[in-house]
Amino acid sequence: MKKILLAGILLLGMSAFANAESDDEFDDDLGGDISPMETIQDFMDDCNNHGDYFGCFSVAMKYEKGDVLEKDISKAIEYYGKACKNGSQEGCKMAEKLKAQ
Fold it and tell me: Which three-class secondary structure state does DSSP give residue 88?
């Protein structure tokens, strides 16, 4: 029984790996990966138009760190606040932390 279970787990792992490789090939057919700025723009859209706290939080982190976006603490606070408003407790904490600095 253990051998059958182990074989099943092994097959699942191999099929997951095969799917990951085919996804990479699919991305290449579409012209490559999305740029970091396009990803941030998608997060901004998700935040501002769909109330997605993950998108808000992601944009806030980029503003806070100056990664992809120019460092802007007031914008980071704004987006952490939006994440908070949309249900992210961590967004609330980060907005308060940056306000206190």
Answer: coil
**Would you state the pLDDT for residue 4?**
61
C-alpha 96/C-alpha 5 separation (Å) is: 50
Specify the 3-state DSSP secondary structure of 94.
Answer: helix
Those residues with Cβ within 8 angstroms of residue 34's Cβ, 6 or more apart along the chain or in another chain: 42
State the Cα–Cα distance between residues 71 and 95, nearest whole angstrom: 15
Task: Extract the runs of DSSP E, i.e. beta strands, from 1-101.
Answer: none
Here the tokens at position 75 are 């914008």
Judge whether 91 and 78 are in contact, CB under 8 Å.
no
Amino acid at the residue 15: S
Residue 10: the pLDDT is 53
What is the rounded distance in angstroms from the CA atom of residue 47 to the CA atom of residue 80?
Answer: 11
CA dist 56 and 43 (Å) reads 7
Task: Name the more confident of 14 and 88.
Answer: 88
